[in-house]
Structure formats: structure tokens, C-alpha cells
Amino acid sequence: MHWPPSIPTFARQLWPRHGYFLAGLWVLAQAWFLWRQQGPHFANDSARYLQYAAGIAERGYFEPGHNLRYVLYPLFQSLWLKLGLGWWGIVAGQMAIAGLATRALYAGVRRLTPGRPGAAALATLLFIAWPDIQVFNVFLLTESLFISLVALSFWAFTRMRRGSGRDWALLLLLLLLTALARPNGFLVGLAAGLAGLDALRRQRNRRAWRAALLLLVLAAPLLWQALNHQLETYYLMDTYQRGELIFRSELWKVQAATPLDMPPPGTGPVVRVLYFAAHNPVYLGKLMLGKLFVFISYLKPHYSLAHRALGVLVLWPAYWLAARATRLRSIWRPARMFLAGVFLLQAAIVMLTVDDWDVRFLAPVLSVVFVLASLKLMASLQGKEG
What we know:
By secondary structure, the chain is an all-alpha fold. It is built from 16 helices and no strands.
């Protein structure tokens, strides 16, 4: 491997064993969080997932309504409950999938930078060492599975450059599983679709591009119905009226200067949002910008000073590097589009809905930030900016 002068000598000497170092660090991280949480951690939403999983394991009953939007995770939990392995089995399963996802993240970045493994090592190191990612492997929540599926989907997407039929089937399967893991899981498939559309648009023969656009037009009624279905069990107007930037939190809010013009009763979820936006544009704009700040800043009021400082010192520069990486012509363009799309779509969803008090919405997409930032940093160090 060609080393730029800026890389210290000790790093060059340790490099041949960096895979063992990353694997050991991953194991230590799992052991640390298990010890810190004193085993599988029962959190705020764990009860409803476990109750749902028990219904599937015992009676094959899939609960309708809002919980159906998280169906993959209770189904995953039910397998371990059916085997009699309980919470420890669930956490062991989450860790096993997380281990595969970590290896897949490394392999995906390597595929984008053949002959230059530095970016893969750095992205994987950040993915393992960041305190708000691996910790979810011991939580009885959807986040561990969702984080892993995002990383696995990225790995599968990188195989599309010279993908076979098996690769396409694998990508579609992972995108489907990701969509079933959380209500916003569809964003990963949407990011892949947008990257694909961009690739079709740039081809000399635009027949496929025009066919894809026609298909989208024909599917518009179904997409509209699906979006209404996804928003049906969310009470967005209530959060808008309360001016919440963080769900059920009174600490940070936006106050309306004048009475809000609310949509009439009986309208669908999407129409309500559009009506509210059209009649309260300034207020909604402030609300959305506030949520964006809360989402990306890492400065939430519940965080400790050390937690906030870590975000400012590491995440803020990573955002800047990631944004610059989207223009790296040396990196396969669809992959750049996919990675940026995952993060931007998640940010847009948070802006339209509401953020949580912790990192449950940011953690699943930090992997794409770390990948892009690592690609840009290593390209700069190696003088491969084009």
C-alpha cells in the first residue's frame, strides 16, 4: 500500500494487522456495553415489542395498527422466544447480525476504493467506536437491527456496479427487510431507487429512464395511498400545535406568533400536512429548521457536556467531510447518491415528524456519514481528490 507522508510510522507498522485490531475492538465494545447495562437492557418501548413477539411465538398473531409498522423486529424476537432463549438469545442474535454488518460495511467501502483500504478501516473504526451505535446491540429495541440492515444494504448496493442476478435479489431482499424494520425503513429503498434513477438518466440511451418515469407516474396513486397509510397512526398536527422539536419535551419548543390555521376534519394525513404547510409556512419553516438542528447538532438538552463536546469535535467535521465526499468523482456516483440519500431522507422525515430525546433517529444513519467522511479524508491524504 502506498502511504502518504502524513501517516505516522507506527500506523504503517500496525496496518497489516488492522483487521484483527478492528475485530478485537468490536468484541470489546460488545462486552463493555453488556457489562455496563448489566445484560439485555429493557428500555421504554421494549414492552410493546416483547408483547408483540410473544403473541407471534405463542399464537402466530400479528397485531394490526401502528405496531405492524415494526413487524420485522417482533418477528425476529419471536424466533428466540420460541427457542426458549429469551432476552439473552435476542441480544446474541442482534450482536451476530451487527458483527456481519460491521464486516459488510468494511467490505462495501473496500469495493468502492480498490487498492486503498484506509477509508474502509477508518469508517469501520468509527462505526465500532462511536458510543451511540454498538450500544443498541444490548437494547431490546429495533435500533440494532435497523442499524445493521442499513449497513448491509449499503454493502449489497456496492455490488450492483457489476451485479449478477443473485446480487440484485440480495439487495432487494435487504431493502425489503429494512423497510419492515421501522416505519421509516423505506427511506433506504427510496435512496437506492433515486440513485438508480440518476444512473439511468445519465445513460446515452434514455429508454430505461423514460420507462422508469412512466412507471412512477402510473404508480403515483399507489404511492400516495402508501404514504397516507404510513402517516395514519401518527398525530403530526398535535406535535405541530405544541411546537415540539423533541417528542413530548417541553425544553425546546417553537411558539406561534399568531393562531395557527389547522386543517379541517376528515382530511387525509398527507393533505393535512400540505394544508398546514400552505397556511402556516413561516411557523412550519421554523419548526422544521429547529428539528433539523436538534437532529444533526448533537446538542440535545439531555446530553452531558462530554457527549455534546464529542459531537462537536467529531460529528460536525464528519458532516463537512461527508458533504464534500458527495463530489468525489473517483468514487462510484450511484454509491455517493445512495449514501447521501439515506442521510438526507432521514433528516427530511425527522423535519416533517419530530425527533426523539436520544439518538434513536440519528444512530441508524451515522454509518453513511462515517463512510462518506472517511472516503473524503483518505482521498485528501492520498491526493486523490478527483
